[in-house]
Amino acid sequence: MIFEHNKSIENISEKIGYVFAYFLFTTILFFILRLTHKIPNHWVYFHVMGITLLIVVVGIIIKRLLK
Fold this sequence. Notes:
67 residues
C-alpha cells in the first residue's frame, strides 16, 4: 500500500518546531544573561525576546538578499 505524504501536516510541524526552538533559545539566553549579570535587573523576558526576534529578522533579511 502506498501512502501519500501530507504536506500540510509537515508544514505545520515545521513551523511549530521553529517556534519551539525560538522559545527554547530565548529562555536559555535569558537565564545565561541573568545569571552572569550581563543584563540590567529591570529587564524582563520580553526584552530578550525582542533581541532574539531582531536576530531572526536580520537573518531572514540577509538570507533574502543573498538569494
